[in-house]
């Protein structure tokens, strides 16, 4: 593969959930080893995603997966944290790409020529591959978090704000892996803090 042909696809997974890190992947495909069936990871079933993830790891010219932590998400905001994870993934690649093509509207600051492509995960094979790696890596991480916090059901909703997840938050409170800057979590914390303050402020009963 010549240097002029090296294009890196980048995508993230996990911007919407209330818990867990955000993941990003960067992939440089090998044109001599095409992978059939690449598509937006959200449009693929779990088994198909897992199969394609193995294919990508085996046949891509280079790939890398990175994350930004819950603490970084709360400190930076989710967009900046996503871009940070993307930049880390690109920097981890064993090959230096000539261009970075990113799904969506924003590009990470990698110092490389970059292009943001709306719905790129459906139209650009390298971005599709990155979306699959990011999604499968994050899902695997959420299964591990489910083992630590089974009361929240992370194995089912993967941290997204489903009715089940919101009910679990109300019943069990906020865990160490919940994003405190996200409104449902923030409002729950504020409500409990106000209740606690009100309880302390009540005059003693005679």
CATH superfamily: Ribonuclease H-like superfamily/Ribonuclease H
CATH class, please? Alpha Beta
Order of helix and strand elements from N to C terminus: EEHEHHEEHHHHH
State the helix count: 8
Give the assembly state of these chains: single chain
How many domains, in number, for the residues? 1
Over all CA atoms, what is the radius of gyration? 20 Å
Question: In order across it, which strands form the biggest sheet?
Answer: 3-2-1-4-5
Kindly report the average pLDDT value: 92
CATH architecture annotation: 2-Layer Sandwich
Helical/strand content category:
alpha/beta
Structure notes:
By secondary structure, the protein is α/β, with parallel strands linked by helices. It has a single domain, classed as 2-Layer Sandwich (Nucleotidyltransferase, domain 5). Helix content is 47%, strand content 15%. It is built from 8 helices and 5 strands, in the order E-E-H-E-H-H-E-E-H-H-H-H-H. The chain has a 5-stranded mixed sheet with strand order 3-2-1-4-5, with helices on both faces. Helix 1 (46-59) crosses helix 5 (125-148) and helix 2 (70-76) crosses helix 3 (78-92). The chain is globular.
Task: Explain the layout of strands and helices.
Elements: E1 7-13, E2 22-28, H1 46-59, E3 62-68, H2 70-76, H3 78-92, E4 99-103, E5 113-117, H4 120-123, H5 125-148, H6 154-157, H7 163-172, H8 183-201
Please provide a brief summary of the model.
This protein is 47% helix and 15% strand. It has 206 residues and is of the alpha/beta class.
